Amino acid sequence: MATHAQAAIEYMMTYGWAVLIIVVVMVFLYSMGVFSPSRSVPPTSTGFSPFSISAAICNSTQLTFSMQVLFSGNVEYGYLKQITFTSALGSNITSGTFNLNNMQVIRGHFYNIKIKGISCPAPAVTFRFASILEYSDVSSALQATYNTTGTIAGKST
Asked: Structural domain tally of the chain?
């Protein structure tokens, strides 16, 4: 009977070490973030109230981002004046201001804004632009100029 017990202990020791090694490798991979879903999701754009940035693409010729206008109250439309990048990672610039030529925007509508002069030279690289958007809104009582801040981010194509 001692031989069966000894065989059982040897079996448990052999496979026990294998299971322990697998557990250690899994813990290491988990700590490196391999199983994190955020690693496969490209960074998103944030901020810019009363606008919503839904997508951004940067390639070898320009930065393009899609924006919805979310004015509230009695504000029906406004004008985009300029956008300033204070920190641009993954592109050919570090900072700069780009004129948007008083582009008229209407509440609820979507617009694709193209910024020539900014490029992302390498494909599949994460880019992130800290930005200040200057705009004016037009209401029946007043036309005021505002600044809104946010981040435009994505992966270059």
From this structure: 2
**Same domain? 138 vs 81:** yes
Q: How far apart are the first and last CA of the chain?
A: 69
34 CB-side CA count, 13 A: 8
Per-residue pLDDT of the chain (157 residues; tens, 9 = 90+): 567 778 777 877 777 888 888 888 888 777 776 666 555 555 678 899 999 998 898 898 899 999 999 998 888 899 999 999 888 888 888 888 999 999 999 999 999 999 988 888 888 888 898 999 999 988 756 677 899 999 998 888 8
Closest CA to 134 of 102, 157, 109, 156: 102
Question: How long is the chain?
Answer: 157
Q: What is the largest CA-CA distance in the chain?
A: 97
Domain hosting 31: range is 2-38
CATH number of the domain residue 57 falls in: 2.60.40
Q: What is the rounded CA–CA span in Å between residue 102 and residue 137?
A: 11
Contact 31, 132 (CB under 8 A): no
33 lies in the same domain as 105: no
Helix (H, G, I), strand (E, B) or coil at 154: strand
